[in-house]
């Protein structure tokens, strides 16, 4: 705006009020809209807060906080009980129009809304209310649209200011310290600090500064104006809390203040004090004093003749609405992600600098079994930041399950029971919405559970599906409840060379182990494999584990092939009845072992660090990387063991894997249907024959009198 | 706002970041009853009121503070609900605080002057923690007390 020379000086230019909305305000509004207002879009009385400028380089704002909105307890009234302000928060009344749609927001008649608020100010001036409760001069307007699905908020403030026509001019404007004598300045400071420190007056933004002829200053309420006239008053200034910091401009509140002064007390020359502070005390170097000259506009005596008003806030200089998106701080799902990430990072900063969170969050884990072990492993993996989890189980949630299977509740058991895999996925998402969990309802084909010729097709289909699941994941957890159900997965994992962790439970003992690497290179190299295999070149076998031999899998110590362990058994032998504490212990160890493998430089090929003096040193930040952990609750003991791969293993030996790759279903079907096929194939039959020809007196798992034990304890 | 007996100190500041954008910061020092040490809560936001993410806040820190944040064992940031506002704020995790506070107070003479121990405690605490957020304790604050 160009300055014009007029009698009395240049046009007084006011610095516009700036708004600031604390995120808590939107949070509160969202909650009120959802829970209380619903579709009702009638205007809401709100309270804004501001304080005098507190720093010479920064203006203060009109701030909205969550307290700006009415509280839940009280009735929705047209005028909120404005809380008695304190020195940092002077309360001013405002009104909020929050629409139900974006279209309605843009369609609001801004002109008439502003006029309506200006009219309220005008009336308050004329009725004298503005003298009693001067904060009403700063009445403001806010229009908004809260998009509660996207957590974005469109809003626009207006600070209605009555327009003077002709405009107010300023004769002089200078720092207060230059206007007053030093005696006066000291006294004014003291008086202002007193006003600001008293809880009765701290929230009163407009006041009179009366300076007596002896330079003593007092601060008075506006309503004491008449009392301040006459005798001994050297000068009376109109003071107000000025949020603006600029040295050449007063803040916005002065506009309506001048309107009040001229129409109430008919003054044409007004001395005003823009009160500003520094570090909590009056700062008369930053505060301004000025002399304004007013030409009282025609028609201002008439209450009915409401002057024009301006005041829509500019957005970075443009006359447009503002919008912010608060999803990151308000969307609970996003807050959960951010909190989880930070928590894991805490671990990295504190104890484990090389913790690779990116690897954890991108590793795809396949959990076979969604029972006591599956539920618990899934939870632990999520706690470690694993985000991609697939659960496979063909069962339904039974009434006894929720107690021990931590992802299920009673609701999952009703109406025949939900499918475990699906219920587990749903539960995981309720715990942590950002998890990418999938459920697969499928039975795992098992040796020793023969299938009829009608079922062959679908069983082969299941095998194929399982094969693909193993191929498409990075780590597989064998968490089923029978030994034979682990056979095909173990084979497929050895075939695909995937990180494999087995957890198995006895009544009061458990096994957690990591399978060694597969015997051959990845199945992508099948063609090269068969060529090399023909030449009988031993070097063609896959990388040995560091330390030489491959570590074994779950079946490497078996000298019989897995058979049906569930038929003809009593209930407590059929579904393993275990001490409840066992599954969580084993599951936790399985998850921790997995994380260690991921961080070992050799991954699946990692050998076992047997050197006990090397605890936690070097490149193993969390300690040793055992092959097998066997624990017993009976003695509260735990030990780590090593078992190397057996060339006669029914699941991971090169014989079996090669046969699987070459023959596919012609291998699988006999393995499933024929009890001794695997043993013949791997030479176990031979081994047993040769073993029985010696009289051995060793503690052997295949001792006949341990038959019951062997089937009961599935380790 | 509920009566805050444990809210020691409130500090606001403004930072000019690049692109002529202004960032505002609030710092609260709150006493943690469970860790029994002061804890620094903070948050940043831009002029529209949009809260700043941690990576944006880190850009506002002076270079040496950012270094301290990365390397120090004593200071790690988590996000938690502010104890009074129930909105997510960032905080410097207090789990290491009592350990390093003991190091600062090894001098028994200091402990003996119990009447100024509380003020010294906060100032000393802040002299470590403040480095992380780029705020320094003016030397006068410490000298006056000791003498």
TrEMBL record, chain B:
Superkingdom per UniProt: Eukaryota
Family: Belongs to the ATG10 family.
Pfam family, one: Autophagy_act_C
Protein name: Ubiquitin-like-conjugating enzyme ATG10
Cited Gene3D superfamilies: 3.30.1460.50
Record key words, sorted: Autophagy, Transferase, Ubl conjugation pathway
InterPro entries for this protein: Atg3/Atg10 (IPR007135)
């Amino acid at each position: 705006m160009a300055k014009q020379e007029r009698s009395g000086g240049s046009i007084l230019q006011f610095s516009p009020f700036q708004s600031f909305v604390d995120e808590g305000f939107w949070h509160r509004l969202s909650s009120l809209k959802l829970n209380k207002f619903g579709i009702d879009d009638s205007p809401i009385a709100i309270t804004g807060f501001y304080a005098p400028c507190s720093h010479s380089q920064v203006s203060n704002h009109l701030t909205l906080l969550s307290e700006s909105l009415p509280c839940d307890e009280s009735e929705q009234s047209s005028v909120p009980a404005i809380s008695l302000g304190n020195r940092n928060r002077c309360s001013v009344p405002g009104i909020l129009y929050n629409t139900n749609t974006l279209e309605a927001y843009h369609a609001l008649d801004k002109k008439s809304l502003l006029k309506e608020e200006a009219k309220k100010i005008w009336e308050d001036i004329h009725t004298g209310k503005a003298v009693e409760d001067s904060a009403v001069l700063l009445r403001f307007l806010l229009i908004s649209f809260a998009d509660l699905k996207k957590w974005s908020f469109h809003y626009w403030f207006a600070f209605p200011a009555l327009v003077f026509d002709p405009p107010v001019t300023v004769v002089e404007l200078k720092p207060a310290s230059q206007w007053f004598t030093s005696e006066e300045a000291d006294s004014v400071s003291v008086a202002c600090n007193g006003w600001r420190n008293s809880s009765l007056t701290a929230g009163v933004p407009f006041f009179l500064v009366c300076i007596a002829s002896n330079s003593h200053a007092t601060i008075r309420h506006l309503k004491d104006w008449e009392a301040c006239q006459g005798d001994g008053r050297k000068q009376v200034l109109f003071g107000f809390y000025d949020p603006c910091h600029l040295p050449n401009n007063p803040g916005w509140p002065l506009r309506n203040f001048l309107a009040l002064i001229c129409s109430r007390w008919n003054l044409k020359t007004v001395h005003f004090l823009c009160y500003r502070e520094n570090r909590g005390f009056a700062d008369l170097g930053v505060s301004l004093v000025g002399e304004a000259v007013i030409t009282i506009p025609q028609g201002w005596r008439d209450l009915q003749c409401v002057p024009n008003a301006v005041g829509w806030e500019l957005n970075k200089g443009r006359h447009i609405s503002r919008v912010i998106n608060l999803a990151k701080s308000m969307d609970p799902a996003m807050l959960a992600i951010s909190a989880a990430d930070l928590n894991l990072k805490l671990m990295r900063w504190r104890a484990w600098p090389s913790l690779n969170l990116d690897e954890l969050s991108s590793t795809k884990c396949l959990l076979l079994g969604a029972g006591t072990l599956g539920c618990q492993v899934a939870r632990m993996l999520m706690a470690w930041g694993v985000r991609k989890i697939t659960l496979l189980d063909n069962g339904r949630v039974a009434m006894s399950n929720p107690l021990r299977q931590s992802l299920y509740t009673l609701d999952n058991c009703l109406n025949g029971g939900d499918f475990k895999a699906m219920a587990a996925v749903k539960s995981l998402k309720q715990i942590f919405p950002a998890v990418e969990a999938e459920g697969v309802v499928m039975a795992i084909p098992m040796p020793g559970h023969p299938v009829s010729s009608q079922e062959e097709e679908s069983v082969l289909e299941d095998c194929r599906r399982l094969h693909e699941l193993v191929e498409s994941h990075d780590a597989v957890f064998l968490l089923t409840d029978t030994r034979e159900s682990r056979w095909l997965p173990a084979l497929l994992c050895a075939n695909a060379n995937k990180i494999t962790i087995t957890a198995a439970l006895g009544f009061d003992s458990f096994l957690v182990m990591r399978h060694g690497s597969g015997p051959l290179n990845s199945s992508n190299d099948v063609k090269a494999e068969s060529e090399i295999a023909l030449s009988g070149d031993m070097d063609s076998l896959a990388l040995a584990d560091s330390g030489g031999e491959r570590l074994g899998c779950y079946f490497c110590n078996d000298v019989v092939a897995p058979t049906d362990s569930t038929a003809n058994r009593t209930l407590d032998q059929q579904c393993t009845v275990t001490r409840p504490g066992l599954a969580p212990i084993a599951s936790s160890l399985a998850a921790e072992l997995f994380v260690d493998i991921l961080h070992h430089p050799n991954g699946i090929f990692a050998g076992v660090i047997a050197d006990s003096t090397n605890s936690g040193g070097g490149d193993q930040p969390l300690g040793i990387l055992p092959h097998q952990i066997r624990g017993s609750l009976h003695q509260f003991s735990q030990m780590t063991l090593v078992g190397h791969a057996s060339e006669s293993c029914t699941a991971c030996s090169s014989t079996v894997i090669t046969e699987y790759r070459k023959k596919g279903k012609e291998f699988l079907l006999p393995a499933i249907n024929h009890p001794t096929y695997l043993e013949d194939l791997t030479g176990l039959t031979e081994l047993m024959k040769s073993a029985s020809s010696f009289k051995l007196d060793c503690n052997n798992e295949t001792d006949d009198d341990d038959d019951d034990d062997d089937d009961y304890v599935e380790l | 706002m509920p009566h805050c007996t444990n809210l020691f100190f409130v500090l606001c500041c403004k930072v000019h970041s690049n692109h002529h954008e202004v960032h505002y910061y609030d710092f609260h020092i709150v006493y943690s009853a469970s860790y029994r040490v002061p804890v620094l809560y903070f948050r940043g936001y831009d002029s529209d009121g949009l809260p700043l993410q941690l990576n944006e806040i880190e850009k506002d820190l002076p270079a040496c503070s950012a270094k301290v944040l990365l390397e120090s064992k004593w200071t790690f940031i988590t996000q938690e609900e502010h104890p009074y506002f129930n909105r997510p704020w960032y905080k410097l995790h207090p789990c290491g605080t009592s350990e390093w506070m003991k190091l600062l107070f090894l001098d028994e003479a200091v402990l003996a002057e119990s009447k100024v121990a509380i003020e010294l405690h906060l100032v000393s605490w802040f002299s470590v923690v403040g480095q992380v957020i780029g705020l320094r304790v003016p030397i006068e604050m410490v000298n006056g007390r000791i003498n």
